[in-house]
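User: Need the bound-state model for magnesium ion:
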Amino acid sequence: MSYLAPGSSSGDRKPPPVIALRNITRTYKMGDSEVHALAGVSLVIERGEFVAIMGASGSGKSTMMNIIGCLDVPSSGRYWLDGVDVRGLDETRLARVRNRKIGFVFQSFNLIPRTSALANIELPMLYAGVHAKERRARALAALDLVGLSSRAGHMPSEMSGGQQQRVAVARALVTNPALILADEPTGNLDTHASDEVMNVFESLNRAGRTVVLITHEPDIAERTKRTVRLRDGLIISDENTTRGPRRAEMGAAR
Amino acid sequence: MTILLYMTTALRGLSANKLRSALTVLGMLIGVGAVILLVAVGNGSSIAVQSKIKALGTNTITITNRGRFGRGPATTGTQTQAATITAADVKAMSDPNQAPDILSVSPVLSASVTASYQDASTTVTVTATSPTYLPAEDYTVEAGRSITSSDVASSAQVAVIGQTLLSNLYPAGANPIGTDIFMTEGKNEAQFQVVGVLASKGSTSGVDPNNIAIIPYTTAEGLLTGYTNNFKQIIVEAKNSTDVNAAEAEASDILASANQTTVANLPFFVINEQSLLSTSASTTSTFTVLLGAVAAISLLVGGIGIMNIMLVTVTERTREIGIRKAIGAPRGAILGQFLTEAVLLSLFGGLAGVAVGLIGSRFKIVGVKPVATPTSVVEAFVVAVAVGVFFGFYPANRAASLRPVDALRYE
Ligand SMILES: Nc1ncnc2c1ncn2[C@@H]1O[C@H](COP(=O)(O)OP(=O)(O)OP(=O)(O)O)[C@@H](O)[C@H]1O
Ligand SMILES: [Mg+2]
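Assistant: Bound-state model below.
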């Protein structure tokens, strides 16, 4: 069981953590100088957690999120996703991991242009090889979950920002991923639209999904159960924002 | 993803930029249309040339005696004796036992003489020959009659005249049949009665085939100098077009044994009309290939147009590619999507080009009726699609190779 992440190998039958980062660094070479976007981050996130990542601009939040989402690879360190070391995965497997295990929500919505809301939500299932009938049914269900059943045929350009973002959330959750990642999902939205999107995330988390989101807004972070703060590519604080004792795993990840 | 889904996605991508897609399709259309049309033109002109040559009579072999100094096929230097073609050789070739593939043999003596009728006189080519010369050379008698074997046997002083000679000697509308014309060559002079008029005949060389008077070869003795029962030329007609080469071999064998030499050493110049035909066929096919090559270049340019536009598309849609990869599109799906777009462009261009090429080849182009062949149509179409795959692959592969983070960050 050497592939198992630290913090889960204590011998009990507990499933492995969804995310286990150990000493992750990410260095960008800019000519002669190097930018250490991540300078050694270790973090464990268990199944069903609802985590906010905060930090000043340039502190490495997106860099970390991209590595967690298998969009980028770390310069050093190890990352276990759902107990599997992603370092050993080739391009095809990484694509499959992104498709099956991760749902991504971006600050700029990132819906495919000139493609209806429904078709956008169907897209990940298309790549997963789900049959047309089932695809349609699940996409409609996901659209219903984010409260946009009436907008199925709308193009992204025909929807408000909040609606687009909820379609993006529906697209992220439609494959039943273990993990939903959101990089400043409310960054481009007003308070009302933000509230609607956060309601969706909260209900997803209540249904047992692991949700990790980046935010600059303290009131958004307050609605999560755990807040991780970054500064200069390092974790400077990691606290439970719900009442109750801190998790034992956090110590292991430190 | 199924092919159908690739198609609908690709169509949506193409319709996002209708004008651009249409122009790229136009480039392919011109390429494919040009290939089909120009090959059809080449093909049409080749068919025209061949039918012209066929009209001259393809079953004939012309054997010309070049004398002992002739540079015939034998350059071995063993010719010590002049070779001759005699009446006995002509008789031997006419014998179906000795030469089963030969239909007729026409000895030919030609000379330029002055012909006169009443006050008019002109220069004309007089051809002394046998009656078989006319069909062998595709001459037909328009009025009166041809020369006959009894004319030959009795050395009758009769002549069949061509249209040019007719108009040079006779006033318009006059009936020449039964009139007498005089022909002089040097000090020799002879009188001939016109018995027939030839129909006008087309020419491939610069010589006018209608400025002619045909007389029995037995009457040439008194008129033409150098007539020593040594024919300058004979025309051998094969029984049918498949026997032309056999007939040539038989005639050559008879001449070789009569002259006590080998076929290779005969100082005769043999023109086989069929080999002329195949020479012209190869010339025109070279012409067709050349035209096709020029058109293929425009097909290539069309392909480069596709590549160019696909590179632009991939760059424009880098972000979309990033999104697709982030939600789990495998490399193959991205490759397939953009390759399908490129192939659709070339497919539309190919189909439209086939239509334009086929419509265009219904019209006469620079005097040639184009003849489109199914092979050139199919080939042009297949090549067009292949061009789409070839030139679409690089941009599509570039899209598929993008790293998701980089693609997503692209502005
Ligand atoms: N592609 C890149 N090339 C070079 N440097 C980069 C690149 N991407 C990020 N960086 C650098 O890495 C550091 C962390 O960037 P990151 O995008 O993770 O910040 P962030 O915390 O998400 O900031 P923000 O809140 O503004 O989104 C920054 O200093 C940034 O300049
Ligand atoms: Mg960021």
